[in-house]
């Protein structure tokens, strides 16, 4: 590819996932309250799961297959894509296990900390691997049109969740990332973000811990 790829939204999504994992670790480490009461049904947990699902299914359906096809005769590079797919497959069962622990009154509290630690280890390791190995490979291999197709699939999957996912992604992001993201949005969407989406998100008690 001749043009440098702008991965701003990819990194912003990854950083938002890392941020939420830190929040989840803080909650599950609390000893002054039952973490299940805080986390179960929390808007933050539901948003985290939804954003992760959209991001990973978009990659599984519209990014990794294109990359695999382009790398069919390059086994070393193809192994990177296969690792991305395997890492995705290892994360969903951990999400399900956390939800099961949140619903389990008896042994759930004892399992929750280890499960969220395992989730953080797997997911943080995956996004770093993706940033270090897969993104440079994508930049070298895919065309701008292919990447735009992936972006369109990702946006379509977000669909009605956009008013929550966008401010979620930009929560605690630095000014440069926010400005770069805003520049990608059509003026009506940017106005909706500034006047409606971001204020509504800011008003959420995401982790059931506001007093």
Overview of the structural elements:
It contains 10 helices and no strands. The chain is mainly α and 211 residues long. The protein has one domain (8-161): nmb1532 protein domain like (Four Helix Bundle (Hemerythrin (Met), subunit A), Up-down Bundle). Helix 1 runs antiparallel to helix 3 (43-62).
Helix content: over 70%
The description of the largest β-sheet is: none
- CATH homologous superfamily, by name? nmb1532 protein domain like
Q: In percent terms, what proportion of residues is strand?
A: under 5%
What string, H for helix and E for strand, traces the elements in order?
HHHHHHHHHH
- Coarse morphology: globular
State the separation between the terminal residues, measured CA to CA.
Answer: 52 Å
CATH level-3 fold name? Four Helix Bundle (Hemerythrin (Met), subunit A)
Task: Provide the domain count.
Answer: 1
Q: Cα-atom Rg, whole angstroms? A: 18 Å
CATH class: Mainly Alpha
**Count of DSSP helices?**
10
Q: Would you summarize the structure shown here?
A:
The chain is mostly helical.
Properties at a glance:
0% strand; mainly alpha
Question: What does the secondary structure layout of this molecule look like, with pairings?
Answer:
Layout: H1 8-28, H2 35-39, H3 43-62, H4 64-70, H5 75-103, H6 108-141, H7 144-158, H8 162-170, H9 175-184, H10 187-202
